[in-house]
Amino acid sequence: MGFLDSLLGRSKPKEPNLDDLFAVPPAALTLEARSGIIPTGVGAVAFREVEGGAFDRAEQEARALIAADPNTEVEQVNDGFGYTWQVVTQQVNSTSDLVTSLHAVNAALEAQGFGPMLLCSTVYFRASDGRTTALVYLYKRGTFYPFTQVGKHQRDSAYEIQLRGILDEDLPVESDMSKWSPLWDAPGMDR
After folding, report:
1. pLDDT at 32
2. Beta bridge partners of 155
3. What is the full DSSP assignment across 96-153?
4. Domain 15-176: CATH class, spelled out
């Protein structure tokens, strides 16, 4: 960031850091203690579909890393919007193991030069009233935000803001709410 940028109030966006994902397990404990929502054991990594052998190898490497764990299932879903989702389900609900698997997918794709294709990673939580919330990590911004879908293309913005106040203690939460994109019917959200 240069001198002129600081004078004009411009700030440099936070760089992505895949290790930020490892802050999710403590945040999950905070969310459970303060709001009663619990992890579902499901998460996903979304990335732009790309053709080519190198990308296929990177994707297969990521899936092989995860599939080595007998308590983990991996499913690939194309969402119809040009994104592929690697949906990871833990048989034994361990947020730490889930985050490790999501990190492996992201890291494998990034190591092969496909970092710019990464969109987001999600970890899903469920409230006692049945609402499902995705804790979304925006790869290009290096920040998190909550997304709660409550109907066909309806979100619970008030609840998301409430969760933001809780998450601020543990995670770098996206301050620009216009970046809180809805992930309508995201793969894994209904599990």
Report:
1. 95
2. 149
3. HHHHHHHHHHHHHHHHTT-GGGEEEEEEEEE-TTS-EEEEEEETTTTEEEEEEEEETT
4. alpha beta
